[in-house]
Amino acid sequence: MDEDISIINKNTRNENIKNFFINNKKTLISTLITLILILFGYFVYEEIQSRKKIELAEKYNQISNKYILNKSENVIDDLVQIINEKDTTYSPLALYFIIDNELESSNEEINKYFDILINELRLEKEIKNLIIYKKGLFNSDFETENNLIAILNPIINSESVWKSHALYLMAEFFIYKNQKQKAKEFYNQILSDKNSNENLRKEARKRLSRDFSE
């Protein structure tokens, strides 16, 4: 008797499963096709991105070689094109190449390129913070106190590994401006932050001992 009931239950389950597939055949097929298309699209996208990365690498290397050979015509335009590609590797490299070789005389243009990297690239958090710090470093030669602080504030108000670098940059900025009290505040912030870079902590301590001892 129990065996008969078990067979009936099994047959009922099988029938229910069969009916489910029959009744939902169109939905199941559509779902399967959608999943296949999504997977196919993902692999196509990855392949396109990989090829694009290779092309950018080749283009960047060609530009570097062209500049080394003193064939610098259109180099700046080519580098700006790479920046506008918004690639996480080669767009920053292109901007640093422009800055290092002084290919762009307009600070405003350089800052526009920095803003593209900071605001429009999908960067890891600390890579983004590094670029913010480099923007601050670039601007420290000519910007006002308020503007420089505004640039560096996202790092200064965070727990970034670049925080102590930003604090030290501000301290040195105020030393150059002969505003020692403000410089001292930033040096002290480096010393009070347990996560500060050890080398910068030592430099801050030296600065305080040398320039602020009574």
Write the SSE topology.
Layout: H1 2-23, H2 25-68, H3 75-84, H4 90-100, H5 107-120, H6 125-139, H7 145-156, H8 163-176, H9 180-192, H10 198-211
Helix pairs in contact: 2-3, 2-4, 3-4, 4-5, 5-6, 6-7, 7-8, 8-9, 9-10
Short description:
With 214 residues, the protein is mainly alpha-helical. Helices cover 79% and strands 0% of the residues.
Folded structure, characterized:
By secondary structure, the chain is an all-alpha fold. It has two domains: 123 residues, no CATH class; 69 residues. It contains ten helices and no strands. The model has no long low-confidence stretch (mean pLDDT 85).
From the structure above, extract its key features.
single chain, 214 residues, mainly alpha, 2 domains, 79% helix, flat
